Amino acid sequence: MKGIVFTEFLEMVEDQFGLETVDDIIEAADLPSDGIYTSVGTYDFNEMVALLQSLSQKTNMSIDDLLYAFGHYLFGSLGKAHPEVIKSYTSPIGLLYSIEDHIHVHVQKLYPDAELPTFNILDKTDTSISMVYVSSRGLYRLAHGLIEKCFEHFNTTSKVTYELLKEDGTEVKFDVVQDGQG
Ligand code: HEM
């Protein structure tokens, strides 16, 4: 997993729970990297799992809820780090439609060792999109948060529902409908 995901995760923890919590969860997670990340480095996904577990224990929030909150945070971080990747989009549905064939393709060029999910589009209209998230990492609640924040980025809101096609969350169908005018 790319370092930018780790650095932004720890940034979110600092913003929402304070620097002491950052130190505490790094210590509790007992990480090979000692919690020292650079945004362009690549680290074992298990370190993210360990950090999420220790944050979950400390805050009594579920890992799923933490991932969802992190998705909201991460959309802004990725947009700030790589404005050129999202600036050509004029609508949230258009952006979501392009993750697989454009956005993450570009990301893979920026970070050749990035491990990205797959989004298969099932259906799209001007105000809705259905797609299947596929990833061995099962970060579908992160995807949920990213999708919602994408609408906020365009000053609109959405209703996002999802259905686990595989129990472990490695295949999840999303139905996304834009609210109001947009
Ligand atoms: C990773 C979804 C937009 C860059 C991921 C992951 C998800 C995801 C769920 C975690 C990996 C996994 O699940 O296997 C989405 C969604 C987006 C979006 C739903 C739009 C709403 C973007 C944009 C950028 C970006 C705009 C960059 C400008 C990345 C990077 C990673 C990533 C760098 C980390 C890869 C790694 O850890 O190796 N994306 N993404 N994504 N995405 Fe996206």
Automatic annotation (TrEMBL):
UniProt-listed PANTHER family: GUANYLATE CYCLASE SOLUBLE SUBUNIT BETA-2, SOLUBLE GUANYLATE CYCLASE GCY-32-RELATED
A GO MF term: heme binding
Coiled coil start-end: none
Name assigned to this protein: Guanylate cyclase
Signal peptide location: none
Domain Heme NO-binding: 2-161
InterPro entries: H-NOX_domain_sf, Heme_NO-bd, NO_sig/Golgi_transp_ligand-bd
SUPFAM superfamilies found in the cross-reference section: Ligand-binding domain in the NO signalling and Golgi transport
